[in-house]
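Note to self: the last two entries modelled the partners one at a time, which told us nothing about the interface. This time every component goes in together.
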Amino acid sequence: MKNRLKVLRAERGWSQQDLAERLEVSRQSVNAIETGRYDPSLPLAFRIADLFGMTIEEIFQRGE
Amino acid sequence: MTDQTLSRGPAWFWGGAFFVGMFGTGFAARALDLGSIPSALVMIPPMLLLIPLVRASEKAQAACGALSPATRRYNRRGLIWAFGYVIFLFVAVFGAKSGASGPLLWLLALLPALPIFFMLWTMARYLVEETDEYLRLRVINAALWATGLLLAVATVWGFLETFELVPHVPGWAAVPVWAVGLGASSIVNRWREA
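The predicted structure of the combined assembly is written out below.
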């Protein structure tokens, strides 16, 4: 799955640590999601979408 | 990146020192034919290396953003069972050598198994308490790899033993083999993420 997490985070001037704290996950998790090594569960994907005020599909897209 | 690399150094160092210390004293005790009780005693100092090893590992985990409260609790509980294991093992060996028999010997023989049950509980608690799904998945993966390694080693060794090519290894060796597999998988995980 592809995602725009890194871009969305950069637009807000957040570090990976900032985003991790807002999502209440580890920085390692944010890094793994951003680099496509880990696809989040639906509950976490909803939390990410809610944080950015977007839908899941606007952040995560199909594809490798 | 530099910080991560620097903070990983001590964990590797203490891990190596612990490994060399435990196996070194184990082999030395056997080679010198020290007997059960002195053998258990000489393995206590290398066990103490677990404390700086856990502290250095936590620093490394914190540096790469992977130290959750559940991981911290798991590490602390890990130290408790590791030391409990050595102490109970010493008590059991000492008791058996002192001529314990009957029900008391049964009790002593089962004593070192208690910290292992605590270890299993620690592992289960970690999986329940870890709120970070990615970190939890990583530990589950590492545990599966460790289980695979244990099954492979036990099967190969078992057949070699059946055909009398290698000496008998007691069943309790399963836990150390599994722990080595867990540690190796965690190291591979970190390498892949570096």
